[in-house]
Amino acid sequence: IEPAVFVTNDRPVYGPGSQFSYFGDAFAIKQGNPAAEAQARMMSFAATRSSASGIVPTDTLSNLLLQFGELSSPIWDACTQVGLTDPGPFVLPVVTARPSAATLAEGVNPTPADVTAAGITITPSPVGVSSLVTRSLLESSNPIADALVSAELIAAWNEYAEVFLAAVLTGASGTNTLTAVSGQGDELVLALRAGLAGLYTQRMLGRVANGIMEPDAFAALATAVDTTGRPLLPSVSPSNADGTFSPGFGALDFSGISLRGSSNVTGFSYLFPREAILAMSTGMREFTFAEKQGPALIEIAGYGHLAANVRRASNVMKVAFTAV
User: Fold this and answer.
1) What DSSP state is assigned to residue 237?
2) Is the sign of the CA dihedral 143, 54, 66, 305 positive or negative?
3) Radius of gyration over alpha carbons of the chain, in Å?
4) Cα(142)–Cα(158) distance, integer angstroms
5) Looking at residue 56, what DSSP letter applies?
6) What's the CA gap between 221 and 265, in Å, rounded?
7) Cβ–Cβ under 8 Å, residues 271 and 319
8) Residue 314 phi, psi dihedral angles, 5° rounding
9) What's the pLDDT tens digit per position in 58-101?
10) Which residues contact 247 (CB under 8 A, 6 or more apart)?
11) What single-letter DSSP state applies at residue 226?
12) Which 8-state DSSP code applies to residue 10?
């Protein structure tokens, strides 16, 4: 004869399926009038976060979300920014020649000459980014899920816009290259002063207002000192200095020129008038495709167009620096 087997399925002391409240029993005991059953239940139930998961739900602090992070955009900030409303090709007109003035004899007319203009055709480049999200996640979570994805797509698009513009800047031909500088920060300071002074002997679109420094050159400027060890470009209490670093050494005002470091330029640094470079963008538009990948997946995508043009490369001072 097989022994009898008894299976019990006791209800949990607290939580779903229980008629009692852990916090209600705790309150009763605190008031000094606990029922014997309440004390027994409290004694038999070890209320930890794991055993009380049914009555103490886990919360997500959405306001403290740590995003992947977005890099700064010093190159884009330093250029003339143009919003594009049409992603189609367009022409930038450029004057290539004009008449010359001359001294004339009395009664003699000047010789006519043409003002010659040409056009540079710019074709914006399409740029996109996308991510797949499960329908279950979007429909079962709070709005933080799609907001998180959207924010990361925008950050990725903006980060690539900086890379795109850096490629146009570093690939420009005809820039005014400063003789390679080797040494410490003080030698670089002197070379920049001489190079900038010589730059204004040509036709300029505007005053040199911005500079993008490759990391080694920017670090050399931050540590530049004179023969007594005094910082040449201090961050506090400047006196008889060519410039001043901002607190935290994120930017340098070098004789009125805003210099910032960028990891998107290597080997060379670039100083230029804001008017010398155009940075053009339609901005990123967001699209959602609910059934493109089938019912279980939703694709969230960003799409837009970018274009850039170095309008006068000779106004761009290209600086090579090697730390010794």
Assistant:
1) S
2) negative
3) 34
4) 26
5) S
6) 16
7) yes
8) -65, -15
9) 666 666 777 777 678 999 999 999 999 989 999 999 998 999 99
10) 235
11) -
12) P
Name the nearest CA neighbour of 199 among 36, 39, 316, 302: 316
What distance lies between CA 258 and its chain's CA centroid? 18
Contact by Cβ (8 Å): 279, 82:
yes
**Contact present, 299 and 293 (Cβ < 8 Å):** yes
For residue 91, CA distances in Å to 117, 120, 159 come to: 12, 5, 27
Q: Nearest-CA neighbor of 278 among 240, 253, 307?
A: 307
The DSSP letter of residue 115 is: P
Q: Rounded to whole angstroms, how far apart are CA atoms 145 and 149?
A: 6
Q: Give the predicted TM-score (pTM) of the model.
A: 0.76
**Helix 36-44 vs helix 22-30: angle between axes, to the nearest 10 degrees?**
120
How does pLDDT run across 153-187, given as a tens digit for each residue? 999 999 999 999 999 999 988 888 887 788 899 99
Indicate if the alpha-carbon torsion angle 81, 85, 90, 96 is positive or negative.
negative
Q: How far is CA 30 from the centre of its chain?
A: 55
Say if residues 306 and 280 touch (Cβ distance below 8 Å).
yes
H-assigned helices in the chain: 22-30, 36-44, 74-78, 135-140, 144-170, 185-199, 215-222
Tell me the residue type at 40: A
**Residue 211 · residue 272 · CB < 8 Å:** yes
What sign for the dihedral angle of Cα 84, 87, 88, 94? Answer: positive
* Distance, CA of 15 to CA of 53 (rounded, Å): 8
Please give the DSSP secondary-structure letter assigned to residue 101.
Answer: P
Hey, what amino acid is at 57? P
Which residue type, as a one-letter code, is found at position 138? Answer: L
